[in-house]
Amino acid sequence: MDRLPFTILVMQKAVKMVWEIRAASRVSYIFSALLLLWITLWSFGVSGVVASGIGDGGRWWLLLVFSISLFWTGAILCNLVHVTIAGVIVLVLAHNGQDAPPMPSRPLLRSLRHAISTSLGSICYGSLFTAAIRTLRWAIRGLRSRIGNNECLLCCVDFLFNLVETLVRFFNKYAYVEVAVYGKSFNCSARDAWELFQSTGIEALVAYDLSGAVLLMAVILGGLVTGSCVGIWTWFKRRDRFVMVGSTSMILGMILVGMSLVVVESAITSIYICYAVDPSLISKWDAEFADQIAETLHQRLQHRSGRDIPAHMVGVQLPNPAPEMV
């Protein structure tokens, strides 16, 4: 519960940042429509496989391939939105202030063109792994926190956790911001983002933030509301289709709500990356928010190290170039 005030603060600032970029929501709407179109085509393909005369073994393999294609395509479309919004936000922050260079024309269109051309390969590659590894990391972290005095089980879980942490270094959502800004490959971006977080101490702040869990709960809630409303309607119209229609509606609701919330998640990740690269980028946009981040970071580093850390050392880092769109 002590993490909620900071989480709420970060999410409020992320929503404010997205709200200032009026066209950001349009990107999520466009890609939501594309995702619905893909789901429609996918449904026809699955129906054809089910109705075909292929044997059960071949049918299950085809359904597995179709399932992977659905989740992979959904992840690619979400990450395209993520990279587009992150590129725009970094541009806005980098060109904010009196001494900053002028903003390039049509920044959203420029970022979108960069995402679907230069960065498309990195996005497709990263989309295969990031969601699965993030979910596995949360599950292992929750399991480790519930283990009591069983040293053997704790040792095994710690080994799995360290293994997943190693994978996170190469597959994390913050890599997409580096992909959007610098145009690097996905693995290089993930490694650089993780090293940047560790060298500046921002990793302690990221671990303290619960915004990812809050957004996940919002996605689940959206799916439950959609599934419940459609399921109740189906119960009175076609009771024999109640389970199928209700569960399908719940999945579609989760997908659409998740696509809408990608813009908020992208803003949050961009805030952390920009603060790690150069805290003045956030300070020029909102000085009070930058001070609150610095104060919370100081507290978390104190808690993690168990010793006092001078406040002026928070945010000290190796020189990095100012973010610039490729």
UniProtKB/TrEMBL annotation:
This is Uncharacterized protein. The lineage of its organism: Eukaryota, Viridiplantae, Streptophyta, Embryophyta, Tracheophyta.
